[in-house]
UniProtKB/TrEMBL annotation:
CDD domains: Ig (cd00096). InterPro entries: Ig-like_dom (IPR007110), Ig-like_dom_sf (IPR036179), Ig-like_fold (IPR013783), Ig_sub (IPR003599), Ig_sub2 (IPR003598), Zig-8 (IPR037448). SMART domains: IG (SM00409), IGc2 (SM00408). This is Ig-like domain-containing protein. It comes from the Eukaryota. It comes from Ladona fulva (Scarce chaser dragonfly). GO terms for cellular component: neuron projection membrane.
Length: 117
């Protein structure tokens, strides 16, 4: 008798460039959340900064775009007050987080950074 074990991995979100991202103040901050192992698109994807939802609380200069298996958050001119822990929470996948550091001056050489001048 042969038995088969089926292991199903749960869908999960992944924010590119994590676990930390350094961005120069005044530059654009772009976070891309990809859905891995998802068989269908999510009903929703919510973005949070430090546990506060920003999808519908976003002001001018903040955009949220959704694709079939991705979501992108963009802050056109990031400032130090935008620093914090950002989370992407899809309806059908395990959420993902990234810590964003908005710095005055040049980002440190160590780690990942993005400079849009």
């Amino acid at each position: 008798m042969t038995a088969y074990l089926s292991i199903r991995r749960k869908a999960r979100a992944e924010i590119l460039g994590g676990p930390d991202k350094h961005v120069k103040s005044g530059s654009a901050l772009r976070l891309t959340c990809l859905l891995r192992r998802s068989t269908e698109p999510p009903v929703y994807v919510f973005w949070y900064r430090d546990d506060r939802m920003i999808n519908y609380d976003a002001g001018a200069g903040v955009l949220v775009r959704h694709g079939r298996h991705s979501s992108e958050l963009e802050i056109r001119s990031a400032k130090p007050a935008d620093s914090g822990n950002y989370s992407c929470v899809p309806s059908n996948a395990k959420p993902a987080s990234i810590h964003v550091h908005i710095l005055n001056g040049k980002p440190p050489f160590k780690g990942r950074h993005e400079e849009n001048e």
